[in-house]
Amino acid sequence: MSESKVPSVNLSPSDYVIIGGTGDLSLRKILPALFWRYLDGQITADYRIAAASRRDIAIDEFAAMLRPFCESAFADGTAGEDEWQGFLALVSIITLDVKGSEGGDKLAEFIAERADSGRPTIFYLAIAPSLFGDATRLLRDCGLVVPQARLVVEKPLGHDGESSRAINAELAEIFDESQIYRIDHYLGKETVQNLMALRFANVIFESQWNNNHFDHVQITVAETVGVDNRAGYYDAYGAIRDMVQNHLLQLVCLVAMEPPSYFNADQVRDEKLRVLRAIRPLSAEDISCGQYQEYMQELGNSSNTETFVAMKLAVDNWRWAGVPFYIRTGKKLARRASEIVITFKQRPHDIFQRNGGGDIDSPPNRLIIRLQPSEGLRLQLISKEPGPGGMRLFPSELNLSFGDTFETRLPDAYERLLMDTARGNQTLFMRRDEVFAAWDIIDPVLTLIAGKTPSLYRSGTMGPEDDLLVADGRAWIDPYDD
Ligand code: BG6
What we know:
It is built from 15 helices and 16 strands. It is of the alpha/beta class. Strands 14-13-12-11-7-10-9-8-16 form a 9-stranded mixed beta sheet. It has a 7-stranded mixed beta sheet with strand order 3-2-1-4-5-6-15, with helices on both faces. It starts with 14 loop residues before the first strand and ends in a 25-residue tail after the last strand. Residues 1-7 have low confidence and may be disordered. Bound molecules: 6-O-phosphono-beta-D-glucopyranose. 6-O-phosphono-beta-D-glucopyranose binds at residues 223, 242.
């Protein structure tokens, strides 16, 4: 077992039931995350994991399917055969068809074996949302929707406000909101949580965090991958639904929210909701869509789906009036990098200009929060160049790399989120009203772009030219080199 440098908080054991247990999400994300938590000692031998799916599959075959996705743990020596077998001993396979209700009795039996312990049961719906209704009804009919049951769901929770309300209404018929955990995996990223620590555990930033000091904010989530084998899903969704409605708007919320009184689920989510409600309805000039050149060829169809989008948002409240939030995300871009860049206002008066200090076009101070990869913080400052020759100024940087500072593996977002479901902590999950408020912003955007052809861009660039910032006399700041 690995010796984690980060103390794991022990929890009372839980049962995880992954419905869609042999599917892509389960194999790629959920089970490897549980395996890492096992390696860290947080998931103990008393936990149970059921992979429920229509496939009747033997544990050995299942283990062989899962193993490649857990390889990083073996590669760095954290895991060996003993750990692997120890983890597999926690896993049961249950054949379950949520539509035909077949297998419900076996699932009920599995839960009943430990029911008297009152332990939490976490039902993770790793299946298409069109099956959520069937799955939740099956759980209810099997008598499994008890107070200690929790339900985890993930996007796409609808493809506009109306369908999202319909899906959520279906869930609400059976589970109470306090039992529903809607994953936005960006909230489970270490650096995204660090943004809250940066803002609310330090006084120096918070006093600057407003329209007296900020010129503007840029948020970039750039990916190098294309749509690959997800073309069917992606073409019906596009970058706005796939990334902006959830991940990017959540990042805007974390930058713009007021400090909650306590770091608890309702207070944090109340403050994020206020931000979403303060975002001004966008107009067509605030949106720029692009599509990478090879997209339609890969798809085998013509399509207006955007694989890139940039937007200018205004947050209409006292703190942020006049501070634009520019956001962009896209596939097949020049690099994989997610960054929040805060550009401060220029100093009001330059005292160095008259004594030769004005020899650089000194940039404003910037705070760059790198979410991935090479997670860290950079604070760009102006300094004096050493030596004689007058007051020569040059840009310098305070650079904090989280990887170097903590010398520990940064856990995957799913690890944190899965343990929070066991803990019963909803702080990093989306509440229903947040999801609806985000759709209230996005629905009109989808109407504005409907039928419009996105600009084509070459793969390996940072997307199409757009003049969202140019019109404001600003420019996109490219992510820094790793
Ligand atoms: C998912 C999107 O939610 O996030 C994908 O559906 C995207 O299209 C992915 O690639 C990006 O996540 P990450 O963690 O790699 O930044």
